[in-house]
Structure formats: structure tokens, C-alpha cells
């Protein structure tokens, strides 16, 4: 494989791994939110479920994409499918950023989180509370929930950029694969793959070697151990001395 193909595949694999880690973070945070709400029999918003669903799908996609890039990177069908999915996840993480936009605010005073709205330090003002086994009422840590939501908001924006970049790299991989397929292997390039630029260089190299050989053969002194045609009757291996004397 040409150096350009190795570089493109390495870049794409790195992007996929970054997308995977970012998606795992979002999935982990919102899975914890939903688990907390479910454990205490509290209402779960559709937005919270949507964020978990989008991030879960992204985790699965980016995991397989990172693995398969080494084997299928650049193939037309696989590249087109990856580009479509990348565009879809750009929209998906834009939606995640919108759903977690409250994370862009300061995590002090009254905050809005997937666990509810209330004071970041005490949780007071929350529309619901949790009653423990000893009948003591307590509130979830909304300050921590706000910080987690802030992290998800930032990661969602980063993932939007990463998916745009991976779509562009996928286009470059597809074009590179088509170029490599078009120019190799064949007798004209020594049965090695390569684009026209490298193929042209190899052909010129072989041509230069052949020209050197021909020049060497053409520069040998005539009559030294060579048979010379005499008239139309045959050949003789005789040589002549200066002055025309045969021996």
C-alpha cells in the first residue's frame, strides 16, 4: 500500500477511536442519570432517553468502524455507507448539544439538569425529593449533575467536529483507493501498485537503465573479436591492422 493510504487509514482510525471514547463518556453519564431516576421511581424525560440512545448507537458504530477501517477503508460501498452514517451522527450530536445546552451555564445558584431544577449546592427548590429508608428527605447533588451535563455538552460539540473530519477523510480514502486501483498492478509498472506519478517514475528509471545498456553495447570497438560481413558471401572473424593488412 502506498504511503498516502497508510497515513489516511491511520488518521481515520485515530478519529474513530476519539469518537468512540467521546461517545462512551456521553453514554456513561446519561446511563447514570437514567439509572438514578429509575432507582428512585422518578420521571425520565424523552430528551434524556434520546441522548442515551444516540450515544449508544455511536459507541457501536465507531467501535466497528475503527476495526474495519484497516480492512475496508476506501472501498466504495463501505466508504459511502460510512459517509452517510457520519453525516447522520453529526446531526445526532448536534441534537445532543441542544438537549444538554443548560450545561453551558455556570453550575452555581439555580441549575437545570436531567435530575431536575434546583439549587446547585443544596438541591432545594427541586420539584421532587428522595425519601431514604429512615424517612429522611434528601435531594440529589445537582451541582455534580450540572458538571456532568457540562462535560457532555462539550464532548457533543467535539464529536460533531470529529464526525465532520472523519467524513472528509473517508472521501479522501475512497479517491485514493480508486486511484490505486486504476494504476496497478500491470506489466507497465512492474506488477506493483501505485498512482501515475510513481508509475511514471518507475518507467523512466527502467528506460534509463535500458538506454545505458544500449549505449555501452553501441560503444564497443568494431572488429575486436566480432564477425564482420564481407560482401554478400559470408562472415569472417578477421581483424585488420592500420594500413589494411589482414592477419
Description of the molecule:
The protein is mainly alpha-helical and 247 residues long. Helix content is 62%, strand content 7%. The chain contains 5 helices and 6 strands. The strands form 3 sheets. It has a two-stranded antiparallel sheet with strand order 1-2. Strand 5 (228-230) and strand 6 form a beta hairpin. Helix 1 (3-39) runs antiparallel to helix 2 (46-72), helix 1 (3-39) runs antiparallel to helix 4 and helix 2 (46-72) packs antiparallel against helix 3 (76-99). 27% of the residues are buried. The model is unreliable at 195-202, 222-230 and 235-240 (pLDDT under 50).
Return the average pLDDT rounded to an integer. 77
Query: How far do the termini sit from each other?
Result: 62 Å
**Quaternary organisation:** single chain
Instruction: Count the E strands.
Output: 6
Which outline best applies?
Answer: elongated
Along the chain, the helix and strand elements come as: HHHEEEEHHEE
Strand content: 5-15%
The biggest beta sheet, please? 2 strands, antiparallel
Based on CA atoms alone, the radius of gyration comes out at: 36 Å
* Class by SSE composition: mainly alpha
Total DSSP helices: 5
Helical residue percent band: 55-70%
The side-by-side strand order for the widest beta sheet comes to 1-2
Unreliable segments (pLDDT under 50, ≥5 consecutive)? Answer: 195-202, 222-230, 235-240
